[in-house]
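A common beginner's mistake is to predict each chain separately and then try to dock the pieces by hand. The better habit, illustrated here, is to supply every component at once so that their relative placement is modeled jointly.
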Amino acid sequence: MSIDEAKRLAGIAACNEVQSGMKVGLGTGSTVHHTIVELARRYHDEGLDIVGVPTSLATHALATELGLPLVELDDVEGLDLVIDGADEVDASFQLIKGGGAALLREKLVAQASGAMVVVADDRKMVETLGAFPLPIEITRFGHGTTVGAIMNVLGCKAELRMDGEAPLVTDNGNFIVDAHTGPHLTHPANSEAALLRLAGVVQVGLFIDMCDVVHLAGASGTERLVRSGGRLA
Ligand code: 5RP
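With all components supplied together, the output reads:
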């Protein structure tokens, strides 16, 4: 099975978590893209009555094009669940996210949601987080100082993410740093807390104790992995 097909299967499988009447956070990326397309199909063809809150301008544009009704995060008192992709998932369901530079809105929406469902292909499952460079959203002001401070905190190389010749600018007007820790983030909650103490750090792409279910696709099909003690257990 190709990676694209695995992403499609995982993305579609997660739609079964959604029921009529729900307010649903819509994640960002190539896997959850398939979820959004399928939710829009069910909305139009099967009367699935949902509203979505997008986690990025790209997802806002996709959902609008597909005719899914959207609301602002501040217009609702919480969401039923969010469905989103991930860059890495460990055995405790801790995540690295932000490969698509949307981590700040993704985390805001996830924290406002009653549950978090992740869609991924099985290459994303890891023993220890960190082989995927850790995305960190930082302010533009003093960004060089913040990159240096991040390297001190993590003890590894970190670099500004570029968009051609210029630093990539997020939907929130900030920059992204990718920190090359290697697969050594054995205490991700501690790493997150240490990074958040830096004034220039806006948010960290570590999602700790947030993910409840992973729809994982691999050669033998899709699996629904449930975090024991999680909100969907
Ligand atoms: C965006 C993200 C994405 O969810 C993550 O990068 C996974 O993307 P994809 O499904 O395309 O592999 O965190 O900020």
